[in-house]
């Protein structure tokens, strides 16, 4: 998400007097949440020694989980952007009969517990599922494959991109697109050279959120894709298993996952937007 | 002025004082007489494979002890042992293997001499009724196209399954690479043995290795059960123990005793377990 810069009232516009927004009071009231978010992250880093980090990084299960997580979450994001952008354009530009229903459908995966998403995906794409049984007749099985991991991630994370993209497209003045059309641009040219560039920061912001959510996906993945090192065991799954087998490995992966997410958010915020 | 004031203060204080004494007496009486009948919640950490049997034992025990509400926390034993290690409040722990009980003992939550074996189990091979992988016995698990689901190595059922595969690899009627070939066919290592059962019931996997007691009730009709020959099969021994820092040590001890009593053993037998030889002392 991209936040607008803080809005300050010029003295002459008769807005609220600035002293209401003096820093002290709101700083004090902000501290509990800031501390609540920050302290567990610090505690995680404190418990992970650099030596143990290096040692655990050498384990094949750890590197496999990192590589698999990066691959699947990037694929899930790519698929979401390709398939989600038309949906967002449809929602932002057209009035149609089932618009409200579609709107709710897009939000639903965000409200559902991921475990429900996992069971639902299994019922649809499992070998005995609605679509899965047809695929099985052709000798295709999705469950227990990296494809299932990507599907679980995309199912849970796609709404974040689509929602952000709808807001981005809705914020564009229709006159700008109309002007381009009047000047003889084709629909594709308008989308490519006017709509997409103007919604750029909303699209990138949404994609980053989707990617981060996909990277952290656990519940739907473990139910729908299973747990096999190197094939479907992503970082969150390895952390969960490691928590019971090898706490050091779980701590290392947690620290790495946190580091990757943090660096990615910083890079996006400072270089792309 | 001054004496007057203190007089009102003391008259005000007297009824409060009496009330406090009265409340204290009432409280002491409760503590002395009613302790046994005050509602007690007993938290029992039990291996996932005990789900059905302990569900029945819970009802029997609650019928005998109406003031006790038994709450079962069912999960892979390795998960329960970690929860205990990290301080989760509990009264009784029933593990599917001695190794995870040892984890709980080493964390200090269970007295070293407390664990007693109470039941035994063995492994079976299960497939979906349609048998998509054409699995007719243990040997077929090594065929390259079979999709197998096992419990994770951290889970007792997963560890027993590996022991069984190892025993088969050393058996002269199997090849020495049998265990490795089976493990390379595994498509998922699950968090507890019940998930293995579910994935086979759903037909996602061609075969799974679970306890003989797992395909019970509805699940019994939803899978095909294949016996594993005796010399290769393992005797899974389940230990049970009260948790040292239980808030209700007497009730916890009563529950453990009940599980090991004749009626508890009868229930476990109903669900396919074989009770261990030694009756409670």
How would you portray this structure in words?
The complex is a heterodimer of chains A (273) and B (281). Chain A is globular, with a radius of gyration of 22 Å. Chain A is built from 13 helices and no strands. Chain A has helices spanning 23-47, 50-57, 60-93, 99-111, 114-125, 132-137, 146-170, 174-182, 187-198, 200-215, 219-224, 235-245, 247-272. The model of chain A has no long low-confidence stretch (mean pLDDT 87). By secondary structure, chain B is an alpha/beta fold. Chain B contains 10 helices and 11 strands. In chain B, the strands form 2 sheets. A 6-stranded mixed β-sheet of chain B has the order 2-1-3-10-4-11. A 5-stranded mixed β-sheet of chain B has the order 7-6-8-5-9. In chain B, helix 2 links the parallel strand 1 and strand 2 (68-75). In chain B, helix 2 (51-64) packs antiparallel against helix 10, helix 3 runs parallel beside helix 4 and helix 5 crosses helix 6. At the A-B interface, helix 12 of A face helix 3 and strand 7 of B.
Note the main attributes of this structure.
heterodimer; A: 273 residues; MetI-like fold; 13 helices; B: alpha/beta; D-Maltodextrin-Binding Protein, domain 2; 2 domains; 6-stranded mixed sheet; 5-stranded mixed sheet; 43% helix
